């Protein structure tokens, strides 16, 4: 009897399991994602928003116990006030209503506006304010907020039917009322959170709170057409408003408070003419002054410079120094010329430092470029720190230091075209005298100042070495010379990157650097080192987690919280390092990806995410002991209704004799006695992402593992290790043995294996199908079939030459086409297209700023010339991958239909049979399946 019951239970279980749904494209819209989570100051509440597919966001607040405190539909950008007593968020119009209004061609100014939500966590009450354009709140105090209102047109009053326009007196010369708009400004409402009391300031253009001081600064164009505009400061402690500057039709820029609110800087353009070189003036107000004081204008600025209206302003931490920007005069146009008289020609020269295409993209930035200059608020002396010769700058010790670090890449800029990375010269500037001292030349990798500005430090890529320079005596110390503090897995013909820096010990006493696994404390003067963790024997990677956003030094007492990750098992977690005895202790760990640890400001409560391939990264709540872990969210309960998948690591040996690792994704109902179709998807190394969850969504460029596993596919993602000069052969030597090792296990249908990848992955696939027929179908996104023509191309998003990529970075050729012509030919699929017997689907878009679009065309045209099965997808005006949701969905439907046809024997869709004729573009998609008969 018991046996019969057990058999019945197994049968029922099998029936229930078999009834699980298979993911389809329509299911993308029911999947939720968590965004913008944060914890309140005392850790009592957690705020986050949930987005379902393309629908409206749903904002939620939960208590530390996990109970739902508040939720509001179509809301986003939620945040707690500094004291944690209120939550503020934006309420958006319903997306469906916006779509319908757009369908009706509704004008932009008639569209519904955002609202501001204010939720009182003590009283559990909600206040909503309609038509809010923007809002701000203080960073480090909480009594007030301020927001700008969109213009709300009053309803027209009913008029007597006997009135006509003709009856209006003809001599009525009443001025039109001042209109709320971009040029005039918007109405600013200042609200006291505790009482709800509000004050309105009319026609405000800009506003800002002091970080700590209870003050608000704003600029206005005047309360009406006859009033002057000006800059004002409202002090909340005495409710007094101070007029700092007024002028008719003046323009104000870069309002900037000191931290306490006792000082305010801004730039004024009071000239009402249309002169092209604007006579900007620099003003500073200090508490106690009746008005702001002008410190610099067009006549007193250094020769060849002018006050910039675009350069940001800021005060030093101790508020004794004020930094502002000086700009060079603009290039003045001849405004008398008409279009027929203007010559539009690009002149490119071989020896100009910056390639013309880069210059073109930087035009707007160059127009706004400024050079940091110091105003000493005690002596009123002005010292220019950054210049056209040394334009880039770092101000030390939160602006308090007497030294600044400036740098330039000008002598080496042209080399960037083929080297990729740019060397720089570094110079220290005395902020009082302007005296300079060069501390490093031809330095690749970048230098920075230590927190107290006692040292300059950086990683020199050419030497693969961390260095520190004592700025008091210019002593240059190579801290890691001869030691492996650089990427041990580096496999391209370039200088390896470092593993990074954790930070500095108190008062710049030491710098904490990472090697592959551990944290090391170095004395910046002597180079003496001390290992703080011991992860190398177990291949466990430890990294410091900053829990205080204002932290300048790593704590010198108590414990550090570290992340940990095991390279062998891919398990992760958190650990503590006791600074007193050096004890390293695992706090929580497991076969998951733990990430995004955030601590409450006033308590040890933390939130973080915990995920695996099968588990969504839910919000977890605990304290820094991690002894009690609480899951606060259950984001996608519907997942249990769907056939999902599992992820595991597999190992094999490459044809070069290297032991490799990869991810294998199997369907949830996997049966080792069955034969499964398989899709191989890879890029470079991905196995560290074993425990990452993949929410079903229409990806931009690659298959969604959850989606395809649910539909009965096995997915294989192999790691690739490259040999300089032979990237295509390296991919073959790593990937193909991995595929054959899986075939040998018996559950892969060797006759139904596909391969898919994008960009660098697309190139490797184009190469592989010239070398093997093991794949029945391939999809290659944005591939490079011709390394010779691609070498001479431009990366249009940045304007950079593509040469450096082939000589030194990802393409890994190691030199120019005239140095290694055979390498370029051997690694270019175009020269072996005739050997391809695998059908190929290509996706390459005409606005691609990474890989030239003509590369995809070259690939397709060669296949077409040979009449080999090939399809080409071009999403018009889309970049390296489709961004518009309708295009992403389309790409995923076509890719799924393509692989189902070849790997599952599904019917062919119409678009594969006859394409989509140009006359039908945007009308008929051709998704319909043909009758197999």
UniProtKB/TrEMBL annotation:
Pfam families: Peptidase_S9
The UniProt record lists the keyword Secreted: no
Coiled coil: none
Signal peptide: 1-20
Molecular-function GO terms, alphabetical: hydrolase activity
Its EC number(s): 3.4.-.-
Stretches the record annotates as Disordered: 156-180
Record-annotated Peptidase S9 prolyl oligopeptidase catalytic domain positions: 735-904
Domain of life: Bacteria
InterPro entries in UniProt: AB_hydrolase_fold, Peptidase_S9_cat, Serine_Prot_S9B/DPPIV
Alphabetical keyword list: Hydrolase, Signal
PANTHER family in the record: DIPEPTIDYL PEPTIDASE 9, PROTEASE FAMILY S9B,C DIPEPTIDYL-PEPTIDASE IV-RELATED
Protein name: Alpha/beta hydrolase family protein
Organism this protein belongs to: Winogradskyella maritima
């Amino acid at each position: 009897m018991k046996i019969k019951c057990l058999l019945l239970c197994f049968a029922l279980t099998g029936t229930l399991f078999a009834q699980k749904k298979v993911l389809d494209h329509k299911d993308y819209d029911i999947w939720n994602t968590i965004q913008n989570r944060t914890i309140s100051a005392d850790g009592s509440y957690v705020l986050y928003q949930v987005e379902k597919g393309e629908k409206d966001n749903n904002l939620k607040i939960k208590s530390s116990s996990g109970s739902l405190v508040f939720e509001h539909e179509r809301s986003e950008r939620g945040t707690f006030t500094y004291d944690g007593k209120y939550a503020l968020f934006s309420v958006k119009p319903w997306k469906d209503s916006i779509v319908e209004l757009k369908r009706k061609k509704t004008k932009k100014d008639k569209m519904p506006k955002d609202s501001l939500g204010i939720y009182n966590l003590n009283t559990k009450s909600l206040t909503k304010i309609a038509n809010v354009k923007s809002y701000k709140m203080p960073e480090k105090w909480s009594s007030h907020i301020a927001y700008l209102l969109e213009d709300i047109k009053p309803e027209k009053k009913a008029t007597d039917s006997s009135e006509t326009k003709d009856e209006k007196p003809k001599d009525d010369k009443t001025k039109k009322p001042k209109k709320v708009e971009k040029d005039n400004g918007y109405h600013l409402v200042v609200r006291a959170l505790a009482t709800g009391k509000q004050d309105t300031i009319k026609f405000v253009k800009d506003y800002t709170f002091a970080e700590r001081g209870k003050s608000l600064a704003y600029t206005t164009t005047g309360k009406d057409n006859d009033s002057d505009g000006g800059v004002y400061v409202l002090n909340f402690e005495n409710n007094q408003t101070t007029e700092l500057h007024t002028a008719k039709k003046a323009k104000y820029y870069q309002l900037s408070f000191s931290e306490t609110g006792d000082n305010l800087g801004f730039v004024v353009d009071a000239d009402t003419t249309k002169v092209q070189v604007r006579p900007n003036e620099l003003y500073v107000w200090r508490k106690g002054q009746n008005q702001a004081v002008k410190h610099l204008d067009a006549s007193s600025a250094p020769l060849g410079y002018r006050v910039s209206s675009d350069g940001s302003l800021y005060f030093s931490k101790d508020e004794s120094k004020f930094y502002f920007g000086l700009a060079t005069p603009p290039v003045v146009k001849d405004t008398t010329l008409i279009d027929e008289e203007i010559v539009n020609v690009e002149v490119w020269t071989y020896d100009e430092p910056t390639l013309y295409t880069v210059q073109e993209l930087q035009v707007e930035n160059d127009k706004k470029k400024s050079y940091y200059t110091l105003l000493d608020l005690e002596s009123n002396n002005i010292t220019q720190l950054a210049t056209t010769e040394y334009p880039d700058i770092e101000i030390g010790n939160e602006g308090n230091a007497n030294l600044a670090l400036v740098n330039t890449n000008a002598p080496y800029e042209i080399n960037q075209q083929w080297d990729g990375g740019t060397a720089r010269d570094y110079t220290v500037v005395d902020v009082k005298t302007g005296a300079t001292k060069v501390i490093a030349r031809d330095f690749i990798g970048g230098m920075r100042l230590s927190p107290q500005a006692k040292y300059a430090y950086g990683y020199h890529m050419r030497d693969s070495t961390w260095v520190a320079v004592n700025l008091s005596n210019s002593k240059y110390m190579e801290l890691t010379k001869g030691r492996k503090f650089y990427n041990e897995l580096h496999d391209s013909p370039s200088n390896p990157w470092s593993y990074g820096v954790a930070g500095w010990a108190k008062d710049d006493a030491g710098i904490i650097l990472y090697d592959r696994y551990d944290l090391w404390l170095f004395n910046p003067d002597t180079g003496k080192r001390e290992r703080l963790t011991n992860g190398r024997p177990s291949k466990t990677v430890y990294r410091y987690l900053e829990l205080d956003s204002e932290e300048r030094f790593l704590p010198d007492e108590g414990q550090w919280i570290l992340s940990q990750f095991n390279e062998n098992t891919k398990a992760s977690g958190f650990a503590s390092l006791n600074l007193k005895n050096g004890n390293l202790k695992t706090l929580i760990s497991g076969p998951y990806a733990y990430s995004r640890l955030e601590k409450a400001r006033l308590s040890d409560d933390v939130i973080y995410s915990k995920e695996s391939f099968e588990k969504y990264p839910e919000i977890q709540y605990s304290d820094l002991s991690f002894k009690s872990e609480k899951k606060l969210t259950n984001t996608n309960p519907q997942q249990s209704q769907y056939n999902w998948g599992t992820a595991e690591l597999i190992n094999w040996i490459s044809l070069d004799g290297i032991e490799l690792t990869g991810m294998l994704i199997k369907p949830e109902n996997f049966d080792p006695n069955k034969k499964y179709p398989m899709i191989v998807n890879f890029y470079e190394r991905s196995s560290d992402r074993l425990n990452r969850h993949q929410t079903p969504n229409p990806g931009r460029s690659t298959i969604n593992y959850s989606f395809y596993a649910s539909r009965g596919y096995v997915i294989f993602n192999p790691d690739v290790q490259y040999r300089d000069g032979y990237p295509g052969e390296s991919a073959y030597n790593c990937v193909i043995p991995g595929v054959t090792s899986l075939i040998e296990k018996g559950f892969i249908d060797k006759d139904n294996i596909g391969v898919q990848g994008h960009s660098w992955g697309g190139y490797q696939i184009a190469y592989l199908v010239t070398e093997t027929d093991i794949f029945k179908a391939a999809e290659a996104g944005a591939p490079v079939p011709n390394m010779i023509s691609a070498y001479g191309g431009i990366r249009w998003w940045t304007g950079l030459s593509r040469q450096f990529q082939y000589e030194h970075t990802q393409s890994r050729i190691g030199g120019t086409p005239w140095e290694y012509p055979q390498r370029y030919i051997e690694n270019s699929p175009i020269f072996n297209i005739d050997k391809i017997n695998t059908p190929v689907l290509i996706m390459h878009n005409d606005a691609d700023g990474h890989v030239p679009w003509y590369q995809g065309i070259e690939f397709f045209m060669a296949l077409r010339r040979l009449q080999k099965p090939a399809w080409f997808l071009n999403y018009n005006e889309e970049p390296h991958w489709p961004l518009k949701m309708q295009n992403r969905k389309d790409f995923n439907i076509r890719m799924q239909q393509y692989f189902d046809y070849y790997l599952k024997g599904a019917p062919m869709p119409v678009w594969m049979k006859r394409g989509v004729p140009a006359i039908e573009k945007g009308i008929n998609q051709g998704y319909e399946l043909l009758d197999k008969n």
